[in-house]
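QA checklist item 7 of 12: single-chain prediction sanity check.
[x] sequence parsed
[x] length recorded as 209
[x] structure emitted
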Amino acid sequence: MSIFKKGVLIGLFVSVSIGATSKEMPELIDITKVIPNIKIDCVYATTRNFTGAKIYLKPICYLLKPVAKQLAKVQKELEKQGLGLHVWDAYRPLPAQKRLWDAVPVEQKKFIANPKMGGKHTRGTTVDLTIYRLSDGKLLDMGTYHDDFTKKASYDCPDISDEAKRNRKLLRDLMIKYGFEPIPHEWWHFDFHGWQNYPVLEVDFDVIG
C-alpha cells in the first residue's frame, strides 16, 4: 500500500501499525541546514555499519525541526571549546527500521527495536553522536565506536580511560542541558525529552525532499 494512503496518527502515542506519512508528519529537517558546522557520517547509508548492508536511501541526517534547534545549542557550546558534534544516525523511517531488522543476525536482534514496536529513531527525536575537534576533525576518545555491543558501550563502564570518561561526561552533560535524555547502555544515544509523545513516521528518505 502506498504510504500516502495509510491512516493518520493522532494523539500522543499510538499503534505503529499505521505510520504517519509525508502528508501528516511533523516537519523533518536536514540538520546541516540548522547546524552548518556539524559533522555527518550517516553510517547506515553505507556498508560501514555492523550489518554490512546499506539501510538508508541517502546519507542525510534528519530530525524534527524543534529537536534540531536544541541540538544547535549543544553545538554552539562545544564550538566555544574548539569542538563540534559528529552525528552517526538520526531519523530512521519505519521502512528503514524494517530493513535494518531484516539485515541483523538473530543473535543481535536484541540490540534493535522490532519495527512492529516502532522504536525511538523512527520519530525524528533520537540522535546517535559523539564529539570531534574542529582543528583536525578527529573524534574524541569515548572508549568505543558507534554501535559497540560490548560492556564498554555502557556510559558508566569502569573499563575505559579517564579521558574517555571525561569526554562521555562532557557530551552527556551538554545533551541533558538542552533537553535530551541519555540511555545507560549506549553512551552515544540520546532521545529528545518527551520522545514517546511523537508519532512513528513511515515516510522514507526519497520522499522527504
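[x] summary fact logged: The longest strand covers residues 126-133.
[ ] second reviewer sign-off
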